[in-house]
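tool_call: predict_structure(chain=1)
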Amino acid sequence: MIRIFTLPVYYLFIMGVFLSLTVSCTEDKNGDRLLFSIEDDIRLGLEVAAEVDSTYRAKGQLIERNNPKYSIAYQNLDRIVNRILNSGKVSYNSEFPWDVKIINDDKTLNAFATPGGHIYVFTGLIKFLDTEDQLAGVLGHEIAHADKRHTTKQLQTQYGVALLLSVALGKNPGTLAQIATGLAGLKFNREYEKEADDNSVIYLAGTNFYACNSAAAFFEKTLALQDGVSSPEFLSTHPDPGNRVQAINAKAQQEGCKTTPSGSNGFQELNNNLNQ
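tool_result:
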């Protein structure tokens, strides 16, 4: 008698995913060899960003990009992001569908990035800052997390390649919801944080406009918080601000880039629009 063994459809799907990923494993622009392709990054990012939008929209906190009331804020924010993307230093500046959105929550000092280049900034963080250069430093850091695929690598470690790809293909809404709600608190290892800090310097240097060590100014500001004031949520996922100030300034010195702030007044216009 010939026995025919059948596997559950789920396991066949997983095996198929694994085989397809193994075949497509190639070295990316960052020199990494990942089973998760750039196309997968883009698909995953679109799924996650749509879920993040839905989550904060339901809370009444997502400031829609097409809301004419906040058009000036978005014009200024886009200008900063585009300067960084056009620095010539962002590996996937043309491949990823980069965008930035504002979450209306003055109590939260945070920003985060999805795979594929979708950036979210809380109003609490924007209003905490003093200058456009400081905001550019933070945005450069978040852009680096997406550009160097840190978010994807971290999620891949947490969920596994097959499960993550099922999310990218729109086949796992439960895990998608978990990822979307957890991104704001996603913690990276020291290696990824240092790489994001270093690349913020490199990106800003390439703009020939912002002080390349502007991320250090942000961390200096957090150090100046008075006792009794709760630390920004950003620091729960980006610890050791004192050490990072030194490291960012050292990287700027190594690169020999401009450390004089731009003096741009667009940041005040952005803030005024958010405060209206």
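agent: The first helix runs from residue 9 to 23. Proceeding to next step.
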